[in-house]
Description:
By secondary structure, the protein is mainly β. The chain has strands at residues 27-28, 58-61, 67-70, 72-73, 92-94. It has a 3-stranded antiparallel sheet, with no helix packed on it. A two-stranded antiparallel ribbon has the order 1-4.
Amino acid sequence: xxxxxxxxxxxSVIPAxxxxxxxxVSTPAPAVDPTTCPGGPGLWESCQDSRCCMDxxxxxxxxxxxxxxxxxxxxxxxxxxxxGQRTxxxxxxxxxxxSV
Length: 100
């Protein structure tokens, strides 16, 4: 037979999981980089014109006017940018224009 005996002094409550805020995902440079260019800019240098980097880092666009060789890139504001330059990064990976 069933019993209605209380087995614990308080009912168990399982807390609901706390929702995690959406965080932009960083875009890492691929393991094999077809956009490496010998003699091109290196890590943290501008690659707006070359659209490639010499050291295996990737050329990530900030906007239509600036791109930088970086190991990875997260879209949005980068707190390490110079205070007057803290505008969002698109993090679009640039590659050299094909030769004709």
